[in-house]
Amino acid sequence: MALAKPMQPKAALLFDKADRLELTLCQQMNRMGYYRTIRLFFKAISRLGDGVFWYSLALALPFFYGAEAIFALGHITLTALLCVAIYSQLKNRLVRQRPFISFRDITAHTAPLDLYSFPSGHTMNAVNFAILFSVFFPALLWIVAPFAILVALSRVILGMHYPTDVLVGAALGSLISVSSLVLFPAGMFA
């Protein structure tokens, strides 16, 4: 991993206060990862949340919904790319270190993808995907909503994120998906 960038003074002060306020909850959730079954379960969820679950689901949908699915998947893909662009920029500008880097008693139960935690890209994408898959394919709501929640929980349990990273990631993912539906109610390619 690359060396950490210096944080802007205002962001550093804000994140330092937030880190300390969230530390107890972060520690409690992270301790669940000491149980092998829980750790392995959430590592698998997190790994699937890297994209494997969503991409597999997307590849299967045209077999069930035909060409209609392809148009919806185009919309979903463009919003996902927007999510990646936004969280990448925010992480690189705000440079909040991951909990396991800042606090010795937080354990990294999986390998991080980068140094920074704010916002949670996994959660942002999971919420974006869950909302859009649920809107375009309502029968999937019962699968994608619980999965998105598990992805969000996994990020804190595995020591990769603070709860606010996950909450802000969820809010941004919701904002992006809902905004895309407001602008294109039937989908971008309808």
Give an overview of the whole structure.
With 190 residues, this protein is mainly alpha-helical. The chain has one domain. It is 73% helix and 0% strand. It contains 7 helices and no strands. The model has no long low-confidence stretch (mean pLDDT 89).
- Give me the number of helical elements: 7
- What characterizes the major β-sheet? none
Give the C-alpha Rg.
17 Å
Q: Could you give the order of the helices and strands?
A: HHHHHHH
Q: Which secondary-structure class do the elements indicate? A: mainly alpha
| Uncertain regions spanning at least 5 consecutive residues | none
Q: Estimate the mean pLDDT confidence.
A: 89
Strand proportion: under 5%
The number of strands is 0
List the domain count as a whole number: 1
Coarse morphology: globular
Outline the secondary-structure elements:
Layout: H1 9-31, H2 36-65, H3 67-94, H4 99-102, H5 121-136, H6 141-157, H7 163-183
Care to give the gist of this entry?
The chain has 190 residues and is mostly helical. The protein is 73% helix and 0% strand.
